[in-house]
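Item description
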Amino acid sequence: MHEASGRLVASTVITARDDVVRHGWQGVTIVEPGHRGCGLGLTIKSQNLRYARSCRPALRAIDTFNAAANAPLLRINQLRGVRKADEVTQWQLTV
């Protein structure tokens, strides 16, 4: 939350099924363009992981995905110790 404006400028989510206590999914992480480069992505992902672990102490693995072209989030994941488990190629056509 940007204190001066009261606007939400960064968001991330970790989801998990109720019946699976050891595994979750790191979902979309978004930082508003005007607030990028300030460490918000790393901060919110780290804080959200702490929160998820406090709610789910048995949590041991979180899967995530990123576009190969998204260098900032790949760097954040690397800093957090995320390791590549697989690679998938997708194609996109603008119509």
Q: What stands out?
A: The first helix runs from residue 40 to 55. The mean pLDDT is 92. Residues 38 and 58 are 32 Å apart (CA to CA). The chain has one domain: 10-79.
